[in-house]
Write a structure and sequence with these properties.
The protein has about 270 residues and is α/β, with parallel strands linked by helices. Helix content is about 35%, strand content about 15%.
C-alpha cells in the first residue's frame, strides 16, 4: 500500500536512527494461520512487525513453521517483544534470546505486565528492566502506562520510543485517555506510539490527530471479520490522522460560522 498520497512531501518516522514511511506498526498474534498473518501485514503497509518471542517460533523450535518464512527480515523490521513477562528478569532474558535469534539486532519492544487480567504494565519492573537493557546496549521501545512522569523517566533512561496504552490490551475501547496521551506527546522528544486499545480505523486516526508519531496494533486487525481488509483500513486511517494533525484542524466554536461569505448578497 502506498503510504504517501501524491503532492504531499515525505513524512518519515525515525526510530533509533532508521526511517520508515509507514506509521502503522502491527503484531502477529491471534491470526488464523501464518498465511493470513502474511496477507494482513502486507495489506497494512506496515514496515515494523512485532513478534512475541515467548509465543512464536523464529527458529528456536526445529521442525515447526517459522514465522520468518512469511515475514522476512529483509523486507520488514522484526521487533521482538517481551509479551508474557511479569518481571524484569524474565523480560531481560527474553530480549537477550531475541538478540541471539535475530543475529545481534538490539531493537526490542519491552513490556512487563502487572497481571493476567488487566495486562497493565508493571511500572516498577518496567523501569528496572529498561535500566538493565539500556546498559546492555539495547534500543528499547517501551510499553507503558499513560503517565507523563513515567514516560519522561523512561526517555531519560535512554528508551528510543515511548508506547503508552490508549486502553487495555485487546479491549478495542479506543482512545480513553486523550489528555494524558497529549501530555506525553508534548513532553517527550523521542517518538510516542499508541500501543493497545485501538478497535477500529477511527481510533487510529484520533491517536494520530493527538500528535502521536505512530500506532501499534494487533487485535483490532486479527479479530476483525476480515483481517486483510481491516489492515488496509488501518493503514489509511493512520495516514489520514497524521495528515490532519500536520494540516491543523479548524478552531472549535460554540456558534455557527457560514462557509460562504455573506457580503454582497442581494
Amino acid at each position: 500500500m502506498d503510504q504517501q498520497p501524491t503532492n504531499v512531501e515525505p513524512d518519515l518516522l525515525y526510530i533509533a536512527g532508521n526511517s520508515y514511511r509507514s506509521r502503522l506498526l502491527v503484531g502477529t498474534g491471534k491470526y488464523r494461520d501464518f498465511e493470513q498473518t502474511q496477507a494482513a501485514i502486507a495489506a497494512s503497509g506496515a514496515e515494523i512487525v512485532t513478534v512475541a518471542i515467548r509465543r512464536t517460533n523464529l527458529g528456536q523450535t526445529a521442525g515447526e513453521p517459522n514465522l520468518l518464512d512469511y515475514i522476512p527480515p529483509d523486507r520488514y523490521t522484526i521487533l521482538p517483544n517481551t509479551a508474557g513477562c511479569y518481571d524484569a528478569d524474565s523480560a531481560v532474558r527474553t530480549c537477550r534470546l531475541a538478540r541471539e535469534l535475530l543475529d545481534g539486532r538490539t531493537l526490542v519492544k519491552l513490556e512487563v505486565l502487572g497481571d493476567q487480567r488487566t495486562l497493565y504494565p508493571n511500572m516498577v519492573e518496567t523501569l528496572r528492566a529498561a535500566e538493565i537493557l539500556a546498559r546492555d546496549g539495547f534500543q528499547i521501545m517501551v510499553y507503558t502506562t499513560d503517565d507523563p512522569i513515567a514516560a519522561k523517566r523512561l526517555e531519560d533512561l535512554g528508551c528510543v520510543a515511548i508506547m503508552p496504552l490508549a486502553a487495555p490490551i485487546g479491549s478495542g475501547l479506543g482512545i480513553q485517555n486523550r489528555y494524558t496521551i497529549r501530555e506525553i506527546v508534548e513532553s517527550i522528544k523521542v517518538p510516542v506510539i499508541v500501543d493497545a486499545g485501538v478497535g477500529t480505523a477511527s481510533d487510529a486516526s484520533i491517536a494520530m490527530e493527538l500528535g502521536c508519531d505512530a500506532v501499534l496494533m494487533n487485535t483490532a486487525i486479527a479479530e476483525a471479520r476480515d483481517p486483510v481488509q481491516m489492515a488496509a483500513a488501518m493503514g489509511h486511517a493512520v495516514m489520514a490522522g497524521r495528515l490532519a494533525y500536520r494540516a491543523g484542524r479548524m478552531p472549535r466554536r460554540t456558534y455557527a460560522s457560514a462557509s460562504s461569505p455573506v457580503d454582497g448578497l442581494i
